[in-house]
Write a structure and sequence with these properties.
single chain; alpha/beta; 8-stranded mixed beta sheet; 32% helix; binds iron/sulfur cluster
Amino acid sequence: MTDTATRQDGPGPVLRLQDLHVHYEVRTGQGFGQVPLKAVDGVDLQIRPGECLGLVGESGCGKSSLAQAVMGLVPATSGVIELDGRTDWDRSAATRLARARTVQMVFQDPFSSLNPRQSIATSLGGPLRLHGVTNRSERADRVAEMLRKVGLNPDAARRYPHEFSGGQRQRICIARALIVDPKLVVCDEPVSALDVSIRAQIINLLLQLKDELGVALLMISHDLGVVEHMSDRIAVMYLGRIVEEGAWNAIFSDPAHPYTRTLISAIPDPERADIGHERLRGEAPSALAPPPGCAFHPRCTQAFAPCREGAVPAFTRLAEDHRARCHLLTKDTESR
Ligand code: SF4
């Protein structure tokens, strides 16, 4: 049985991570040579076709390293990355091409994501040519169709990135990611560089395209409020580990981990007063020297001795589709 909170009925996962580790060697600058930084430290996750998984955590928690490992942009130190049933993702050109057809990415900054010297037709037509999705005569039609799908006039194909606003550029980046019919799109903070007034439009567009095209989304954000309305499931990450994972309604109606509760409290919403207002204390510790026991203990208002002195909390399964790592969840059992 897999150690994730995903139900096992229906089609197989489009992405399955099993005990994924991504470690870097980092120079400390203090004469001690290199020390390991465990950016991703044993993550199990699954995403099913057509599903949106929101991956949430503060800056530096490892979510972007996880995304980059899924994309093949950084090597996994150990563990399994299964994409569309395949795990043999080596560095050969053919394999990298197949991987890029399976999983595409939308980046945070739409300004640097597009080549300023390429027309939109070239930017969107390039992946079609590379992956042999259409022949030359069909390419312009496919580009026009994709631009329409993201809410732009097909005439945009003749123009250049500098002629568009930030929101329009992000629409173009989304079109470029989806034009090769990937199974999964990794969206790394796709609205955080955009004006607040257009964030909802881009989120709604992603949701609409997910439903229309049946593509799965891995939606990464430091802000739980951003993924709240689009995620079927949510995984909360802290210092390289998933600390809570579950169906959207389970996370919001019954958050089990104190860190999750602080993230929910940070969303301005008076209707959530019953969850309490647990503020996040201090800064996240460095991943170069994570605290022993529960890595969240220096910031947790409910920490008790085992959190500081005991083992890393194991997952407790709270429901079929909900699990969390916190000693409080097993406190009564442990003290018996
Ligand atoms: Fe807080 Fe302890 Fe639970 Fe960690 S294990 S979240 S420190 S109560």
